[in-house]
Every structure is written in C-alpha cells, then in structure tokens.
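ugh ok so i messed up the first submission bc i forgot one of the chains. this is the corrected input, ALL of the components this time, i swear. 635 residues overall. if the numbers dont match what u have on ur side tell me asap before i send this to the collaborators (the ones from the other lab, u know who)
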Amino acid sequence: MTDEKARLTEENAKGKADGNAGTYTGERETAKGRQPQPEEAGAQLGESDTWTDKMQTLMRQNKLAVFSAVMILLMILVAVFAPLVAPYDHLAQSLPDRLQDPSAAHWLGTDELGRDVLSRIIFGARISLTIGLLPTLISMSIGTVLGLCAGFYGGKTDFIIMRLADVMLAFPSLLLAMVVMYTMGGGLINIFIALSLVNWAGTARIVRSQTLSLKEKEFVEAARSIGVKKWTIMFRHILPNCLPSLIVLFTLNIPSAILSEASLSFLGIGAQPPSASWGLMVVRGKKYLFSEPWLSIAPSVAIMIVVLAFNFLGDGLRDVLDPYLKEQ
Amino acid sequence: MLSRILKRIAISIPVLVGVVLAIFIMLRIVPGDPVTTMLGEHVNPAVIEKISREMGLDQPLHIQFIKYVANALQGDFGTSYRLNRNVTQIILDAFPNTVKLSLLAAAVAWLIGIVAGIVAAIQQNKLLDRLFMGGALMGVSMPVFMTALVLQYVFAFKLKWFPVSGFDSWQAMVLPAIALGWNSAGSIARMTRSNLVEVMQNDFIRTARAKGLRENGVIVGHALKNAMLPVVTMMALQLSSMLSGAVLTESVFGVPGIGRLAVNGIETRDMPLLQGTVVFTTILIILGNLIADLLYNVLDPRIREGA
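and heres the new structure output, hopefully the right one now
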C-alpha cells in the first residue's frame, strides 16, 4: 500500500518539479492536472489557527474519523490501565474453567488453559498498540531523514538511498519480516526491531519527492541566500512542510504494523506463549475453531476494530491535511 | 517507446541483484553455524566440517554469493537441509497451487472491487456509496486470517458447502480464493471509486453528456476507460500484498503452496528452502511490477504516443 502511495505522490511531485504547477483551489482537481501543493498546507503551519481550522473541518465533515479518534484514545487508556480494567489476571490459568462459553463471569469465555479471554484481549491491546505506534515512529523517522537527504542533496546520495528503497519496496512486507525473524528468532522484541527496520522506504520516497519540489521554492532560496546551514534548511524549513503528509502516513502505517505483528504471531514466528498477543491468541484458538469459535474470532475482531479505527482516522486526516496523498 | 521499455527493464536488474544480496546477507548473519543447527550440538566436529565443505559453507561469503547467483540463474536454488531435495523442485511442486490461489483471488478481487467501486461512484455520497465504501474499508482492515477463519467456520463447518481444507478440487479452492481476494477487493473498490469520481469532473464527460449520451453510456464509454488505468497498475502492485496474504491463507486452509514452504523453512530452520522461496517470490513481484509499468505504457495513449 505504502508503495503505491509513494509512487503516485512521487509522480505528482515530479510533474510539478517540471514547472507545470497547478493552482490550488482547495478542491480535488482532475486526475491529470492535479499537483501536490505541500507548501500550501505547510505555509500556514506557523499560524496555529489554521491547524485548528483543519481540525474543525475534520470534526464537522467526518464524524466517523472523530469517532475513531475517540475509540483509539479509549483503547490507549484501556491498554495503559489494563491491570485495573481487566476483570482477571491475563496469565492466571484455571484448568477446571477451561474452554467455557461466554458468560456473566467470563464475557468472552475462557481459553484452553482456563484464562479469561477478555482480560487477555485487554492486555493484548498493549502489545498491538505499542507495536503499531513505536516501530512505525522509528521506521518513519529513518525514512524521513533518508528522504530529506536524498531529495536535498540529490546526485549520488539520492541514487544510493533511492535504489536501497527500491530494493526494500520490492519485498512483500510479510516475507521480509519473516526473513528478519528467521535471523533474529521469534519474540516480540524482535518483531519490534524487524518492523522498525523494514518499513522506512515508503516514507523516504514521499519525503524525497516533497523535498524535491520544496527546495526550489523561494523561501528555501531565501534561506540559502542569507547563508542558513543545509541541515537547518532541511529540518527547520523543509521538514515542517512535509508534516501534514507525514501525519497522514503515520496514521495509515500504524494499522499495517499492527497487522504485520498479528500475522507473524499467527504464523507462530512472532510473539511466543504465554504472551497475550492477539495474533497468537487467534492461532491458539484456531484448534478449537469448530467447537469454540469465539476463541479465535474475538481477538480477530479486536484486531479489526483497531485497524479500522486507524484507517478511518487516517482517511479523514488525509482529506483535510493532504488531499493529494492519493488513496491506496 | 522501445528505449523506454529497455530503460525500465534495465532499472529492474540492480533491484533484482540487490534483493538477492539482501536476502543472502540477512540469512547469513544468523548466530551459530547452520550445520550445527541442523545436526544438533553433540555431533562429531569432523562430520560438521565435512558437511560444511560439501555444502560450500566453508568458503568466503562473496564466493558463496557469486556461486548462489550463478546457480540460481541456471534455476538451481540449492538443496534443502531438511527435505534433502532440490529447492527448485520443491518450489515448482508448490508453485502451481499458489498461482491458482492468487489468480482466483485476483478474479474475486477484480469482480467485487470494480463493481462495488463503480456503483459507489455513481451513487456518490448516497446510501449505497457509504455502505460499499464502509464495507471496502472493512475488507482492507480485516486481517486475512480472520476472513479465512470466518469463511471456514460458516461455509465449511456450519453450512458444509465446501471442504474445510485442502486444495485438490475446485470446491476446495473457493473459500481460500475469497479469503485472499476480499482484502484486495476493498482496495480496488476504493481506488475505482475515487478515480471514477475524479474522471467524471472532466470536460470530456460534460461534452459527452451535452451531446445527449445516456448516463450509462457516459460512464461505460467515456469515464470507465480513463478511470481504470491506475487500477490496472494497482492490480499488479497488489500482487505483492496478495503473495503475503497467500502465506496466511495457505496456512489456514492447509494449501500446499509457496507460503507454506516459507513458513516451514522458518520452523525447521531450513535456510536454503526459506532463501529459495523468498528469492523466487520477490523476483515474481519485481517482474509483476515491471509488467504493470510496461502495460501502463501501452494502455495510456499519452505515454504511448508521447516521447
């Protein structure tokens, strides 16, 4: 997904660098005449009221995105206060109570070791959200720095970084993560490292393409002409103008990371028992699918809700912050 | 045109080499000696040394790499540690299943995705649009294994319409194909809709309407053709996520495909097997992207005739 986003945005930016800039009308323009205008969104960054404006637009236009944001916040709170919220200890086994149907005592039933499924899902939220947020932040930071360097310095730097990105993007993300897991062995920490390292290339492409067009702008020229240092131009003048796209990308990359962790754990090469990782719960419940379907369906639904919430929020944010970051 | 194609092909070659090199290096920074891992700790060191030599593992890395590439170019991906069979042969045995699965899934994705996308675009901002687009986002957000498990539970176990697992009859292929295609269908529906909505704002659509064409004629004859271009490219790019998803689908339904091999390779720490499957799959994806790009060149008259 990120690959396609990167391609489309990059193509747009290239068209613009060629000098056929379109005028920003605030609406979606036709497919071919459309050009990204990151500076329009970014030029107003200094004035905090335009951010507020955009957020107000979001709240007015897209109730679903706002609802999702509230959901995400709630889930974060639940994850942080898991020991207080969860009705049982998520690791406490009770063999006499194994494989119970959902009941008043155990809302989502119990698993094959008699552990309360709801409590495990609540604790599992910690894993999913951490894996969703932190490695994404790390990999996008790497991608941003590399993209800035590639776009700003051009030449050999650009060539080497972008060919590396090409190689990374050529891998199917799950297989790449699988190879890294083979090397490092299973476990959550290793998933954390794997996801931090493998997903930077999409961000690098987008930041690079925006840097390419931004560095031709007058404000960068002005900064250069008064002798501002290169790194200052990159991080103080160009980077803030990429922020809207980065925020949108961040929101949309989180669910991919969550799905990757769940998939790796589902395949048995991610989180290891007795971890309450949702993907691991699904695969352990799979053995009892036909007798106790909720064992694997409940954590699946949890994954879906989190991913859906981030996708809705990301969609909404894109519409107000960066309408040119193409869908998919 | 020809030079453009040749240039595009030329760009793929370093990526190919880079990919093989990246996998090669990643799999070789594994702590511990692969032969020891394979045979266990308490085996005579002399035996380990002999096997290492036979497998060429005692040579410097760059020699190993060159040998690997040279062999791979001749279609030889080495010998599996565990199965003691040629990896190429193992892959070729499993490959038809994955191809069948992916093609069927692609058909499902195209059919559902494009129809839903067109309907949603026509009914823009009406109930059907919201319904379909909500469904599409759900499709994108459902983990592949969830779709697979739900289908398996409902249609194989409860309704008994299809077998629970396996891949040897057409009935057995239905559920895995839907499970895998569902996810892509969501992406395709969203993209079809947004492209169509954008294309419908063009002047030539206004012209078509002004000359009295019926709305259906405008959409099918004028808008669709223009809106589908990026979708075609996207479909090829979906190949990558589809092959990732195939790993999960194959695992749920017990399809003996490439994805199963990769997982087996990890579980049994069979490095040549894992390496072979990943290299093979990634090459497929690079080729897929190459074809998509070339297709785009052929399909888009602005590129075809320009330059």
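quick check: Chain B touches chain A through 59 residues (CB under 8 Å). that seems consistent at least. DSSP finds 13 helices and no strands in chain B.
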